[in-house]
Amino acid sequence: MSTLARRLSAAVDLPCTELDDLHWGADWTPRPSFADDVSELVARERWVTEWQYRAVRPLIFERATVMVWLDPPFRTAFRRVVSRTLWRRLRRENLWNGNQEPGIRHAILHRERIIRWAVSTRHKYRHLIERAVSTRPDLVVLRIRRTREMRALLAAVSTTQD
Questions:
Q1: Long-range contacts of 120-123 (CB under 8 A, 24+ apart)
Q2: How many angstroms separate the most distant Cα atoms in the chain?
């Protein structure tokens, strides 16, 4: 889950649910109830989440009213992914349902782990978002490319809540 999602959630008093928490069971095993859990999440009136899992993207997209598209330069995103992964591993931080980062070698070499995933999908989301948005002209899309844009968004929503 992005830092921005957590901050937006707090700023506008919306519940924030991390999809990895719904998806991953113990020992990095996908939970069979994942799609049902996401359906239950988006059936709520108000929520914040991300949409990285292909299987549930349509459920989320169908119910979303605002999409915040984090689209930083690749070098920025990559630096953040690597530093977050290293930090989590060094601290042996519990992530979702007792799972921990398996190690930097695994994060780089394993096809589905975060560092390799970040590199292999760096061009994927722009196309997906543009295509999806063309089917939902009513959806408000806020594209955030720079830290200053993120700060401005947080300041704007915080002001509207006062």
A1: 122/74, 122/77, 122/78
A2: 47
b/e 121-147 (16+ beta carbons within 10 angstroms → b): eeeeeeeebeebbeeeeeeeeeebeee
pLDDT of residue 34: 97
What's the length of the chain? Answer: 162
CA separation (Å) from 81 to 45, 73, 104?
A: 31, 13, 11
Given its phi and psi angles, is residue 153 left (phi above 0), alpha (psi -120 to 50 degrees) or beta? alpha
pTM here is 0.83
Give residue 145's identity as a one-letter amino acid code: R
Q: Answer for the pair 95, 88: CB distance below 8 angstroms, yes or no.
A: yes
Mean pLDDT of 21-32: 94
pLDDT tens, position by position, 84-95: 888 888 898 888
CB atoms within 10 A of CB 24: 19
